[in-house]
Design goal:
48% helix, alpha/beta, single chain
Length: 331
Amino acid sequence: MQTPLSEAARSLVAQSLAAHVTAAHERIRPFIRRTPVEPCSRLGRNVLLKLEHFQRTGSFKLRGAFNRLLTLTEAQRAAGCIAASTGNHGLAMVHAMAHLGIRGEVYVGEDTLPDKIAAMRAIGGTVTIAGCDAGEAEQLARREGQSRQLTYVSPYNDLYVVAGQGTIGVELLEDIPQLDAVLVSVGGGGLISGIASFLKSRNPAIRVIGCQPANECLMARSVEAGHLIDEPRMPTISDGTVGRIEAGSITFEPCGALVDRYVTATESEIAQALVETLDREHLLLEGAAALAIACYETIRRDLAGANVAIVCCGGNIGQATLRKVLDMVHA
């Protein structure tokens, strides 16, 4: 079990990352969309959805990709980049590299959804299938980057990537000054680390709630154990949160120090949230975004009366996955 940090230690973790988030906010502003915050009618007037699936490339990942690429040296830009992804980070990297005129490629695992590989290739990305899953693809991409002197851009284990994702927190506080709690889906922890650091640096009382599928909740289990763990995982429709957590990841400390609570949702709960959001809110989300809504529904009594933001992290769902979800709900 991880030993709880003192408030002073938590504040130090938050402040150290928050300064980078503030810088990232100014740096990437010309290159991204400021996504809207909209009330969720079926969940209550105090529940607001941060519609990050309206971001260019369909997910929050563009923020981190642009922030990392904009901090490269001229020599690094000339040499090029390599990344590994389950899809959304790869899409963001391909888009940002093309926009900035930087050469690069993306490694994906064999289990990556074909729709996401096709989307990367459709916008001109060089995609290499390497390894059986996202974790192995990350290891191979990092090794290839070292061999060819390319800058490896991690989907989460990179300070500038984390800071870029954290700019969502800046927008949340500007749009919801009286924010009480935020729910964020968690894979490698880059998104929640960035958001939590900024929010906690401004108001430590804001509750940050991490959301993971019950079939793969490695970060929550790791935080509970006090060290990163790896264990067998079950398939999940929340494919955007899938993957091993790299040893020594910079996200582990903030995920332990700044996240107040972790909540999990079953596959049926995620599917139900996705379909109900489509039916009632007319928003088509991917599994990782529906995950955060599903987790809210399991703890909504604990958040009664609070001003709550739910980060809808992406909308890149393929036809095959959508059919599967509909079959699950209507079976």
